[in-house]
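Objective 1.3, modelling of assemblies. Example input:
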Amino acid sequence: MKHELKIHNNLHRKKEVFVPLEAGKVKFYSCGPTTYDFLHIGNARALVVGDLFHRVLRSFGYEVNFVRNYTDVDDKIIERAKELKRDALAHAAIFVEECRTDMESLGMMPATHTPKVSETMPEIIKMIEDIIKNGSAYVDDGEVFFNVPSFKDYGKLSKKDLDSLQHGIRVEVDSRKKHPSDFVLWKPAKAGEPAWDSPWGKGRPGWHIECSAMAKKFLGNTIDLHHGGVDLMFPHHENEIAQSEAANKCPFCNNWAHNEFLNFGSEKMSKSLGNVVKIRDFVEKYGGQVLRHIMLSVHYRARLEWSDEVVKRALEEVKRIHEFVVETESYKATSNGAIDPEIEKCLDNMKEEIANDFNSAGAMGQFFSFLRYVKNQKDQLSEASLTRIKETLTFVQEALGLIHNDPERVLRELKKNEQDTTSSDVDAAWIEKLIAERAQAKVSKNWARADEIRKELSAKNIVLKDNPDGTTNWKMN
Ligand code: AMP
Ligand code: ZN
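Predicted structure (tokens):
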């Protein structure tokens, strides 16, 4: 069965059949992380969604040229490096490596190219020169601005028009800008900041130009698909379009897809709101497979509301999937009969869900029905059904990454996590029991026993605090 891939294209705000420029090949760009600190699980959502697109395109037979950048030159990096009295590029290089570690733990397939801003300066400078030459940028004292009103299509992605933008701008406008929406392409560097020679003096690029330059360098002037978090649609992606189209004089990208936020409570998880869970901390506790699973359990255009319940469900599901994978290894065919149609249909159903704008949640639903059915039928499987089960698992592993290549390892990690949780529960119960016994000992004036209990707990780094109302609290020291 042929599955026609449809993508919700934000350029037109509707689902469209995906037709790449060149048959069988896809030029795909995804905006990558800024490397100033450890990534949080909100960033993980954007990364896993980019990886989902990459894997699905490949499994649908496309040859994919996939670029995901590292923003290693940026104000946040410079600020953080200053605080740590570190060279900004050296600081960014440390976090590029930390990002790589996180991406690996999320089971992400390597991108074709992972360029850094610091290694793309000649292309960035050349592109700014082209934009100036084509009349869409102006230079003012070492600084280059993009002239937004010169680009007639500005706002075609975010559906904003220049008038509403002008009225919407509250912050004080840089007096050198000719229009409040104009944005920086190049700026002079202050002493101690990373700087590169350019026709406009020593300086560094503005944020947006890097993605335009990297896309052109590795993919060409027009690309098939561009992805990022929904917060990047404006101004970042709108500005990428303006820059690329002003420089190259042709369309920049035919399909734009954005993932929704991961929310914590009612707010977006973000560093500035201080409500972040680091990928590293989550993975250490539960394993990367569980985090990946959570990210794919919701359609990428729906909000993902983070909660203990979401984690608990994912833990159970990851366990169920990996136990099933291990179990199937011992399945034996009992006949040479026809393929069981119930077993046969799952793979097509999953592909149909995925072809419908990468509906990973729908595909997961199909897979869980399949899993329940196969377990019930395990003693009456034909050779053909068994082969189909293997093909189905391969799809789940390759196109979705929902099956780790070492399922036993995932099960071991989950077991360890269960034991840790249980043992800490037992500890808490044990502590409470001793506290109650100590209270009783005090009532019966058995001071020796009360003291003994305090010492016993103290030996395990547990500190007691007696409250004026007679109750006792404890904490780990
Ligand atoms: P940043 O490092 O802030 O530029 O973000 C890197 C990527 O993570 C971008 O594609 C953002 O849109 C995405 N991102 C950041 N926070 C969240 C969040 N809470 N939920 C989903 N995506 C996010
Ligand atoms: Zn970008």
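The pocket of zinc ion (ligand 2) is lined by residues 31, 211, 228, 236 (CB under 6 Å).
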